[in-house]
Amino acid sequence: MLAAVAARTDAQHPVGALELQQVPRPRVADLPAHWTVVDVHAAALNHHDLWALRGVGLGQDQLPMVLGCDAAGTTPDGREVVVHGVIGGEGHGVGPQERRSILSERYPGTLAEQVAVPTWNLVPKPAELTFVEAACLPTAWLTAYRMLFTSARLSPGDRVLVQGVGGGVASAAITLAAAAGLEVVATSRDATKRARALQMGAGHAVEPGQRLPFRVDAVIETVGAATWDHSMRSVRPGGVVVVAGATTGDAAPMGLQRLFFTEVTVMGATMGSRADLEALVRMCVTTGLRPVVDSTFDLADAPQAMARLASGEHVGKVVCTVPHRT
Ligand SMILES: NC(=O)c1ccc[n+]([C@@H]2O[C@H](COP(=O)([O-])OP(=O)(O)OC[C@H]3O[C@@H](n4cnc5c(N)ncnc54)[C@H](OP(=O)(O)O)[C@@H]3O)[C@@H](O)[C@H]2O)c1
């Protein structure tokens, strides 16, 4: 079957390390008990794939590795499903002995015609969502959902700063927060993206580092060094900064004095639980909210899709589809 594979790692030119390859289909006989082979209809790209191609979190001994953490597809008995991409750790269907990993780290990922996962990881796809929309949810949208509602425990009327607009997590956070009745401020380096943030439901969109009209209850931080100081200056005393990524690195000083003096909480977040994913899917159905899709590509054009993600010009999710299935 066709798959987009990290054939090697390249810190400077990660997109060039991606190859389209024919790989063996997962065979039920080779899988652990209670795993299912899913026919992938759509698989969304994430910054995680670029990190992997750069060699971050993916060792030479794991190559070649099928990329991709997000998918929606059908099971052998015809059920439409969204794939929860976290495997191992407590409650993930493979037992507590197994160290937590995300698809494409230990097990082959979703940028292929088929992916094998623990049956426990399959969440029903509602008919209201297309496969492309559903495939956007399990990583970036799930992480944004968890940051806003499970980690920061934000409520309608609360104020939140989302650093960055263009990223998958950031655009999801803006959209989800606005739908939940939060007052959203977003930052972007790009005027067009700031305008998009307002369309997505942000009340305010400013340049990175710009003073906000008010202090916020929480910051959704995935940018890292470039925005960290602004995040710490923008959160109200007693507020929370939730961190799920560091696209620009983690070299910024922590600002410890401000941290302890204003009693700010800094929390980490990684992906979300299966229960978070089910709640997110329900939220999309009941509110009519849909993921922001930047562009879709055939799986055979995965290198172009990855180049689009690497360009930083995207707003929302870049998705690959398997022809004849969507
Ligand atoms: N912990 C988890 O479970 C989890 C899940 C998903 C993602 N992540 C991580 O979260 C991070 C974001 O990933 P993503 O896929 O959502 O998006 P991405 O494509 O990495 O987005 C980059 C974001 O950073 C901003 N940005 C980039 N360079 C900047 C700079 N020099 N100054 C200011 N802003 C800058 C961009 O905003 P503008 O272009 O609008 O300025 C954009 O919003 C990644 O590091 C990823 O690995 C973690």
TrEMBL record:
Recorded superkingdom: Bacteria
SUPFAM superfamilies on file: GroES-like (SSF50129), NAD(P)-binding Rossmann-fold domains (SSF51735)
Short name of any one Pfam family annotated for the protein: ADH_zinc_N
Ranges of residues in domain Enoyl reductase (ER): 16-320
GO MF terms held by the record: oxidoreductase activity
PANTHER family: DEHYDROGENASE, PUTATIVE (AFU_ORTHOLOGUE AFUA_2G13270)-RELATED (PTHR45033:SF3), PTHR45033
Name of the protein in question: Molecular chaperone GroES
